[in-house]
Amino acid sequence: MYRKEIDAYIDSHIQEMVEDIFTLCRINSEKAEPKEGAPFGEGAAEALRAAMNMAESYGFAVRNYDNYVGTADFNDREQQLNILAHLDVVPAGEGWQVTGPFEPVLKDGRLYGRGTADDKGPAVAALYAMRAVKELGIPLSKNVRLILGTDEECGSSDIEHYYKIEKEVPMTFSPDAEFPVINVEKGGLPAHFTGAFAESRDCARLISLDAGIKINVVPGKAEAVVAGLEMEILEDTARQVKEETGIAFTFSQEGPHIKITAQGKNAHAAHPEGGNNALTGLLVYVTRLPLGECPQIICLKHLLKLIPHGDLYGKAMGIAMEDELSGQLTLAFSMLKVTENRLEGGFDSRCPLCATRDNVLLVVKDKMEKIGLTLHNDQMRPPHHVDGNSLFVQTLLKAYESYTGKKGHCQYTGGGSYVHELKNGVVFGAAMPGTDNHMHGADEFAVLEELVMSAKIFAQVIVDLCM
Fold first, then answer.
1. Tens of pLDDT, residues 291-343
2. pLDDT at 416
3. Domain range 188-375, its CATH number among 3.40.50.2300, 3.30.70.360, 3.40.980.10, 3.90.226.10
4. Long-range contacts of 241-249 (CB under 8 A, 24+ apart)
5. 416 or 104, which is more confident?
6. Domain ranges of the chain
7. What is the CATH topology of the domain spanning 3-185+383-466?
């Protein structure tokens, strides 16, 4: 119903949609220090203001929830459907080539820029879906609300704030991954561990090691500083380790010491196979150097045995597992800081439905204790599962199939989304299956044709669920 009208409307508003996406993507909305009226920094608050102004200009009733979240309502009738999207972004990072992270461009059918795919582009696609239904005059007997948050990438405290005020509605989807429908989200163990040791008295020693920007990002870069080694030894070891791991190493002088920079490829921790971990690559390198066999180096060697370079599934840690509905456990070693007398690190494990505190957390805690490290986690994040045969999920799949001509199905993800804590929330779009849009990486992009298709699908879903 209304397929032709929706197609025609969205197709005639593509340029406007692109301009609105670019307006939001020019704003650096990385999480920053909180200020009065800006709980996640001025950039996130600015993005929220811009989006609310946009929605209001298209005739929707908007509300700002203390600059944590903003909403746009289609009408004032019974709440039926919520669409949850977010305006904050992960740190820009390095390695951008097509354009600067906050200088969005359209090139070869792709919108490049931080946030184009995650999640400003999909947020605007959802807004245009609502706009299409509204301006086409399609009558809705129930309300659809677009909810735009500003802290999804750093713990979702924004949406937690929102649900302290508002109740969950019967149906919710978040356009924050890919089609068809993600109805299972793995649980997780965002591990935090520490250790201490006596300082080395050897001439050849590790002064420091620093890797990682966020627990949920596989680090593409890592650095270490060493003392007492000749450059020839450093370069010979680098060639050997690069051949084994694919990690590249460069060197620079820092006073009497030498800084080593490891370059790999970052990725989302939910999909570690898409990256090449510079942290674990650097550990391989450091532990191959002829450094004094001090407690610090011994600890790092033990740690590398527990999380070897290339072990993405927790095999060495003893927690590898999988099930039919939610797939394999994954493990991304994402944070590590080492000084001459202490260590602090973290890894991000995404755990299937079969994972428990006993067969994951307690196993890790025991392994860590045996090498002198303390795991500070006492709980795991539970998984999320919505019945794939429900009317809600089947309606989403029907709309997807109708507009794409592809068979719809339910799937799982290692990523956590806004809907993880909701009883009847799923992830729906906005990328098509198989599209690698460099989410959380350099040169992030969204395929314009896919965003246009998403807007059409979302509009159809609104009609089917809210008429």
1. 999 999 999 999 999 999 999 999 999 999 999 999 999 999 999 999 999 99
2. 77
3. 3.30.70.360
4. 241/281, 241/284, 241/285, 241/288, 244/284, 245/276, 245/280, 245/281, 245/284, 245/309, 245/310, 246/276, 246/281, 247/276, 247/278, 247/281, 247/282, 247/284, 247/285, 247/309, 249/285
5. 104
6. 3-185+383-466, 188-375
7. Aminopeptidase (3.40.630)
